[in-house]
């Protein structure tokens, strides 16, 4: 892309071709290379492709339920053709609707934005950017993917059971999720959901422990912690959060499994359901919510932190400026990581929790806005007086910041219990979290995919398609979620299928229809992205430069198509931090370059 | 047929877009990568500026078209609701200012500092003073919001006044049932295993507890409340977690099986007043279940009627306690199933 680096492409690729033969001295069969691979780069691609498939399914579900929400009086015969009794008469039935929203949430939060996101970028970038040949334990890394794969298969198969998949919301609150009598989705579909999630936790732990130990132990010579790119810092904090919080979810889910199948009463008490009083007494339904949100809240940071790192990196590279306030960026990541563990009960202000306890959680929750605003201001200062190149990834990074601001500010509303007592579980909430951790995280993920695609596949994605994808998604996401704030301000609860019987919430017919139409358009734009991704993998323009974006970090010192082991010969030594852009009149200085004689000190 | 046509058109559309995109990228290479990159860079920068302008107009326009459809500030129908509205208003002002400043800066900087051959990026890795400013200013602003928020929170969740009226509300799939304490002002004890739909005991009241004998059970009609009289709701659920959502009173509290919760407020406008104020003669206060509770969640609707004390007394006068009918039945039938099933450890409210 830049002239400086295009000077020696032939030499570079010739060298690569020659040396690759040396690296690949062990024989690789199709199975060891593409399926049971221990190469972190291949595992990363496996996570990414699986994540893309899940994202298509999860996104399609949102299109289906938006059809019903937008056009409640209209019948879509094709739905009956495909889904049979779930959409009898061409309308989505309530059971189906709740199954769709539950699986939409579960799939996108866990399978796409946790596994698909961390799995892709942590795996791809940690060894490459810290200067390691692979993860600390490549075998564990492989297991991490295969546990995820089995979890995926089980979750996918639960879509086909006769009583339907889990349909008690992605939060799976008991007693609804514990009692098959209360909802058909709480029958075998729920068991499959729990088993799948348990395996998912195993996968996530194997991955997280690997990420942590690789970052702490396998940094190359000279790569002190303060020379790490912010991507790596964000992956480190994400992995720590995951390792601390996911086991609590696992315990909560196992207890739920016991309540469901072994007659225990952890979450059940005083229940009279379907004309029958159950024998369970002494349990607490709220206990599950505590256990769930102890993961559930850190989970949103597990989703957003990696994208913060990715975006910081991409903003700096494309603004040709160092990231502003590197230390403050790490500090704010640390602050978010610590606070994230102590704010879970702000999801529970209206569960009858002690008001004093609630007030402690208000305090801690609103404190998170401080490190978050530090990050936003630092990002703004990073592009200030830059020389910005609008690659597709840069546009996505800017979009990320925009969505993070829009969605983050409403967090100040909902984190304040006084406001939450009115807006809790309304459409306002839907707008808030979709903007701040749904769309924003997707934008961070897209930014990362466009940016590191040349590293993954040695090719570029199609630029024109990328730009179309960006603009449709940016405008579409705002059109979908911005007006939802207003629905929430009218008090409209979330997860309502048909508002026509309500006096207070039935005034939004036209708006709902508009949102649904935009949802379909945005979904089609995502198909363009997926096409672009797979097409460019095989047919995209070849990347002929080792360092196509003129970046400073180590992954751009590897060959264009690095083999297993990443570097040919010695691992490079690191001699400076990752953000020397436009320093002393030079466009960028690689991390491997030593300090110059007359270099200025900052 | 129509569906196939739509799919065909979509596929054709995709094909055309993809072909154009491929040709466009190819053209870029032919024209010279660097040149076309700079050109597209310019286009992107102007589009970002355009997005900012259109977006800001969109914010205005959304407000223009939807502003009338939301619950307006100051229209709250309870004393606590007014406090909540105030809090939302101040938070809206503060977050609104931050929203406009940061979004405008983000897109304006993106546009202004687009790549140009004349410009060199400014090497600016950190500045302690700036960072200190934008750590401490948000911290102070948030501290203010937290303090005001918590003061209001304690007012709302504090103990209910002694003279509050007591009403029990019980959620179950997918309806709300109400109970008034009767003349003694005490809700009688109940136990979920006593729930007996066949013998007219839908709440599981324990008939051995005399406090139950004058309790009034209400279902299938609105909960009646008295204007300007504080009311304390005792909230429970029979099967799964529900939530008592009261949008016009700006309040909400979950109904959890096995763990009773409470909330109190003072309705300050009668239903009739609200009908006049909103200009909607069909206006009713609605109870919306806000916690997903199963397939019928959407339809779990209740109503509240706020009226004057006289109207309320008039309505209450015609209500008979459940015990009155139960007593008749138990004296005529030999079996005494109800009291026999009374447990040793009754659950209390």
State the low-pLDDT regions of chain A, or none: 1-23
CATH secondary-structure class of the largest domain in chain B: Mainly Beta
CATH superfamily of the largest domain in chain B: Cupredoxins -  blue copper proteins
Helix count of chain B equals: 8
The gyration radius over C-alpha positions of chain B equals 31 Å
Average per-residue pLDDT of chain B, rounded, comes to 91
Rough shape of chain B?
A: elongated
Distance between the termini of chain A: 29 Å
| CATH topological fold name of chain A | Cytochrome C Oxidase, Chain A
Oligomer: heterodimer
Largest sheet of chain A: 2 strands, antiparallel
List SSEs of chain A in N-to-C order: HHHHHHHHHEEHHHHHHHHHHEE
What would you call the structural class of chain B?
alpha+beta
Describe the structure.
The complex is a heterodimer of chains A (602) and B (349). Chain A has helices spanning 3-6, 9-23, 30-35, 40-70, 77-83, 94-130, 138-158, 188-217, 230-261, 285-319, 326-340, 355-367, 369-383, 392-414, 417-423, 427-457, 463-481, 484-489, 509-539, and strands at 272-273, 276-277, 581-583, 586-588. In chain A, strand 1 and strand 2 (276-277) form a beta hairpin. Chain A is mainly α and 602 residues long. In chain A, 63% of the residues lie in helices and 2% in strands. Chain A has one domain: Cytochrome C Oxidase, Chain A. Chain B is built from 8 helices and 10 strands. In chain B, the strands form 2 sheets. Chain B has a 5-stranded mixed sheet with strand order 3-2-1-5-8. A 5-stranded mixed sheet of chain B has the order 4-10-9-6-7. The longest helix of chain B is centred in the first third of the chain and has 34 residues, at 33-66. Chain B has 2 domains: 32-74 and 89-115; 165-340, Cupredoxins -  blue copper proteins (Immunoglobulin-like), CATH 2.60.40.420. By secondary structure, chain B is of the alpha+beta class. The model of chain B is unreliable at 334-349 (pLDDT under 50). Chain B starts with a helix and ends in a 9-residue tail after the last helix. The chains are: A mainly alpha (602), B alpha+beta (349). Chains A and B meet through helix 6, strand 1, helix 10, helix 11 and helix 12 of A and helix 1, helix 2, helix 3, helix 4 and strand 7 of B.
């Amino acid at each position: 892309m830049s002239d400086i680096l295009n000077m020696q492409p032939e030499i570079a690729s010739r060298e690569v071709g020659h040396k690759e033969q040396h690296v690949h001295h062990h024989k690789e069969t199709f199975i060891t290379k593409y399926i049971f691979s221990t190469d972190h780069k291949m595992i990363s691609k496996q996570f990414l492709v699986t994540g893309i498939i899940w994202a298509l399914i999860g996104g399609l579900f949102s299109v289906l339920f938006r059809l019903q929400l937008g056009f409640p009086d209209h019948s879509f015969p094709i739905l009956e053709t495909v889904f049979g009794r779930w959409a009898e008469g061409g309308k989505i039935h309530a059971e189906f609707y709740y199954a769709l929203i539950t699986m939409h949430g579960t799939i996108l939060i866990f399978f796409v934005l946790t596994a698909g996101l961390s799995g892709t970028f942590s795996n791809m970038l940690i060894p490459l950017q810290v200067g390691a040949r692979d993860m600390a334990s490549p075998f564990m890394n492989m297991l991490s993917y295969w546990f995820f794969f089995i979890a995926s298969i089980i979750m996918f198969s639960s879509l086909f059971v006769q009583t339907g998949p889990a349909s008690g919301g992605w939060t799976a609150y008991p007693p609804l999720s514990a009692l098959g009598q209360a909802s058909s989705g709480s029958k075998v579909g729920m068991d499959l959901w729990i088993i799948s999630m348990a395996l998912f936790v195993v996968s996530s732990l194997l991955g997280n422990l690997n990420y942590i130990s690789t970052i702490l132990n396998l940094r190359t010579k000279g790569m002190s912690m303060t020379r790490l790119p912010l991507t790596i810092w964000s992956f480190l904090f994400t992995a720590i959060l995951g390792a601390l919080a996911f086991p609590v979810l696992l315990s909560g889910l196992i207890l739920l499994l016991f309540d469901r199948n072994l007659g225990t009463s952890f979450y059940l008490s005083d229940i009279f359901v379907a004309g029958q009083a159950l024998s369970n007494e002494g349990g607490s339904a709220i206990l599950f919510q505590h256990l769930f949100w102890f993961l559930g809240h850190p989970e949103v940071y597990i989703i957003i932190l990696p994208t913060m790192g990715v975006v910081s990196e991409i903003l700096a590279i494309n603004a040709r400026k160092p990231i502003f306030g590197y230390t403050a960026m790490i500090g704010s990541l640390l602050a978010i990581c610590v606070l994230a563990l102590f704010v879970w009960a702000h999801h529970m202000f209206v569960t009858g929790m002690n008001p004093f306890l609630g007030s402690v959680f208000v305090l801690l929750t609103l404190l998170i806005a401080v490190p978050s605003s530090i990050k936003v201001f630092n990002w703004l200062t990073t592009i200030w007086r830059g020389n910005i190149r609008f690659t597709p990834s840069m546009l996505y990074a800017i979009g990320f910041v925009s969505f993070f601001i829009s969605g983050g500010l409403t967090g100040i509303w909902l984190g304040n219990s006084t406001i939450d007592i009115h807006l809790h579980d309304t459409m306002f909430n839907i707008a808030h979290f979709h903007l701040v951790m749904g769309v924003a995280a997707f934008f961070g993920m897209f930014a990362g995919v466009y940016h590191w695609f040349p590293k993954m596949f040695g090719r570029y994605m199609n630029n024109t398609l990328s730009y179309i994808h960006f603009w449709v998604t940016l405008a579409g996401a705002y059109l979908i979620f911005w007006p939802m704030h207003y629905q929430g301000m009218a008090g409209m609860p979330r997860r309502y299928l048909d508002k026509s019987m309500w006096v207070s919430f039935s005034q939004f017919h036209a708006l709902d229809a508009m949102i649904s139409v935009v949802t379909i358009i945005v979904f089609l734009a995502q198909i363009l992205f997926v096409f672009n991704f797979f097409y460019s993998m095989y047919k995209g323009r070849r990347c002929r430069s080792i360092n196509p974006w003129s970046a400073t970090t180590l992954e751009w010192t590897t060959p264009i198509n690095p083999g297993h082991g990443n570097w040919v010969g010695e691992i490079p030594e690191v001699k400076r931090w990752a953000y020397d852009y436009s320093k002393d009149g030079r466009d960028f200085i690689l991390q491997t370059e030593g300090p110059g004689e007359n270099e200025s000190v900052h | 047929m129509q569906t196939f046509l739509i799919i065909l058109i979509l596929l054709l559309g995709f094909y055309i877009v993809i072909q154009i995109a491929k040709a466009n990228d190819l053209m870029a290479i032919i024209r010279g990568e660097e040149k076309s990159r700079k050109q597209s860079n310019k286009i992107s920068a102007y589009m970002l500026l355009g997005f900012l302008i259109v977006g800001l107009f969109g914010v205005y326009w959304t407000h223009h078209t939807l502003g009338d459809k939301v619950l307006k500030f100051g229209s709250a129908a309870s004393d606590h609701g007014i406090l909540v509205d105030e809090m939302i208003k101040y938070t809206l002002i503060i977050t609104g200012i931050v929203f406009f400043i940061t979004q405008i800066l983000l897109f304006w900087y993106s546009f202004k500092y687009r790549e140009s051959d004349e410009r060199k990026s400014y090497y600016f890795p950190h500045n302690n003073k700036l960072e200190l400013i934008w750590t401490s200013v948000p911290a102070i602003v948030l501290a203010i919001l937290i303090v005001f928020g918590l003061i209001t929170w304690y007012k709302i969740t504090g103990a209910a006044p002694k003279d509050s009226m007591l009403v029990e509300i019980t959620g179950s799939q997918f309806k709300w049932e109400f109970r008034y304490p009767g003349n003694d002002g005490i809700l009688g004890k109940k136990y979920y295993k006593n729930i007996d739909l066949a013998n007219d005991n839908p709440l599981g009241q324990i008939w051995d507890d005399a406090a139950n004998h004058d309790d009034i059970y209400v279902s299938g009609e609105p909960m009646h409340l008295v204007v300007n009289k504080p009311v304390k709701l005792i909230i429970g659920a029979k099967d799964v977690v529900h939530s008592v959502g009261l949008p016009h009173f700006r309040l909400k509290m979950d109904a959890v099986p096995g763990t009773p919760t409470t909330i109190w407020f003072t309705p300050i406008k009668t239903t009739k007043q609200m009908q006049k104020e909103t200009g909607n003669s069909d206006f009713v206060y609605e109870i919306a279940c806000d916690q997903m509770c199963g397939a019928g969640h959407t339809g779990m609707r209740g109503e509240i009627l706020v009226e004057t004390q006289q109207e309320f007394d008039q309505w209450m006068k015609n209500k008979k306690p459940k015990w009155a009918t139960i007593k008749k039945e138990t004296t005529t039938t030999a079996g005494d199933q109800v009291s026999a099933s009374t447990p040793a450890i009754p659950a209390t409210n």
